[in-house]
Amino acid sequence: MKIRLLPQNLINQIAAGEVIERPASVIKELLENAVDAGATEVEVNVIDAGKSFISVSDNGCGMDKESLELCVLSHATSKLVGENLWDIHTFGFRGEALPSIASISRLEITSAISSSSEAWSIRWEERQNFGLSPAVRSSGTTIEVRDLFFATPARLKFLKSDSSELESCCGALRNVALAFPEISFRFAHSGKEKVFYSKTDSLQKRVEDVLGISFGENTFPINVEMDGLRLHGFAGVPTFNKASGSCQYFFVNGRFVKDRIFASALKSAYSGLTPMGRYAAAVLYLEIPATEVDVNAHPSKIEVRFRESEKIRRFIVTELKKKLFSFGASVAATGTFDDYREKRTTASLHPVNFNKRNGEHGIFSNTIFTSGVLEKFSREENSPQKSPIQEEITRPEEAQKAEVPENSERIFLGTALGQIDNTYIVALSDQDLVVVDQHAAAERITLEKLKNNLSLDSQTLLLQEICALTEAQIELLEDNGDLLLKFGLHYEKLAQDLVTISAIPAILEGCDAKALVGDLIDELSTFSDSYSLEEKINRVLSTISCHGSLRGGKKLSIEEMNALLRQMERTPHIAQCCHGRPSYIRLSVKNLNNFFERS
């Protein structure tokens, strides 16, 4: 076949296919136009999830009569100053949005500029111009898109359900709203308002309006600058993690992007702090000189390309790690009781059974107090003198003298009251109730100690353990032999499916060697080529820490509980165990009042 030129209408439809995938794509492009026009108020209305009708109206600068006639022509724009495509300060320039929409829908634009009393309207259908007509409106622009994809009906078959498409439209609005808190956004479906974000001077308020109060309560602020780069926004504490990356929002110079540099940096910064398969929550804004980023790397402009991508990644990872160490990783996620109340609507609450032991009433159902505590409480009842445990509670400043890591946020976990099921330590800290998972806390303490000494001593086994493994499992051991040897695990291959374990890390003296090897193999099997050496080390150390730590089900004395609490207070990243699960929760009076429905 000979090479030939395609007809213009087909060229237009191909271009539209690159930019306009669904109704949300139209909303994204028109919202960006409104922002570039300097709007402070934007309204979006849709019918049939945007398939039948989309309207975006703004109070921006508007267009005059001549601009209206040019705006849907390919590569006609007001967004490019000069001819430098590497110095773009707007949401353009590709020159394809309005022409693409016009080629696959019935498009009408009404606009007026503030310096003129005239308003004009113009209609297109499959890029056919139906001419200008006078209109009535104040300064700004209204763009109406009817019968999307009527010119390319095959594309309608690829759209999802109305509810799914509507959620995508709301998502497009969220992305722009998060970037511009100074603009108010209103979204309605079939005449019913679904979303309204009022304009605000506070980025935190806009983030909470869009993503919810719980997001604001469980994130910490970031604001750092270095070598012309600025990173600001909010990142979640590690225990506030999600099942997918849907709660990760990245912006470059105000533009929402889906970028692997950001995703990779976030994963690396939270390595060892979140469970495998879980994702940190974050809203991060990167400001960078326009000449250092190519915003036209993708037709829909949702991907960007950096001149120095490794520098960007290193900057994000370094600053996030610093902040996590100094603040975020020592704070447990909030809202425990509030979340429980939301989930209890379909289930009845069991009444609390108060324990009676030695004539005393416990404050927790099934709480196990040590005899020493009970004796102290009993003595206090018959004596005006304060018991030792009460004196500790009234003098928390002494416990706060515990050494904490440099630049780390100081936490105080209070004084131990007792155990629940020999697994959870209950403590009182000022007006807060603290519940600690003793195994999770011990895991993190052990892990942080191991990280300070990456070469572990070995403990030779008196009787070598023989492990029956598959060929694939033995291959995993051999592939990571140097790493395991560094951590004190010595093994030798006996046969095609047998190995002997001759030594284990000394810190694990007395542990089950077979169980340790089995867990290490399970961990090694999750490694991929994308794992850095640091990530591999963290994973192996996490498994070793789990086997070498205090277990749930072990009864502790009050002194042992308090010793663990003091160790926690001076351990970085203590809010989660080495697998990323929470190690403690803190329940405030507000939490308790909400739970018991007290005003």
Could you describe the 3D structure shown?
- There is one protein chain.
- With 599 residues, this protein is α+β, with helices and mostly antiparallel strands.
- It has 3 domains: 8-197, Histidine kinase-like ATPase, C-terminal domain (Heat Shock Protein 90); 212-330, Ribosomal Protein S5, domain 2, CATH 3.30.230.10; 371-599, 2-Layer Sandwich (Ribosomal Protein S8, Chain: A, domain 1), CATH 3.30.1370.100.
- The chain is 34% helix and 24% strand.
- It has 20 helices and 27 strands.
- Strands 5-4-3-6-2-1-7-8 form an 8-stranded mixed β-sheet. It has a 5-stranded mixed β-sheet with strand order 9-10-15-12-13, sandwiched between helices. It has a 5-stranded antiparallel β-sheet with strand order 20-21-22-23-27.
- Helix 1 crosses helix 4 (97-103) and helix 8 (260-269) runs parallel beside helix 9.
- The longest helix is centred in the N-terminal third of the chain and has 18 residues, at 162-179.
- It is elongated, with a radius of gyration of 31 Å.
- Mean pLDDT is 77; it is low at 335-404.
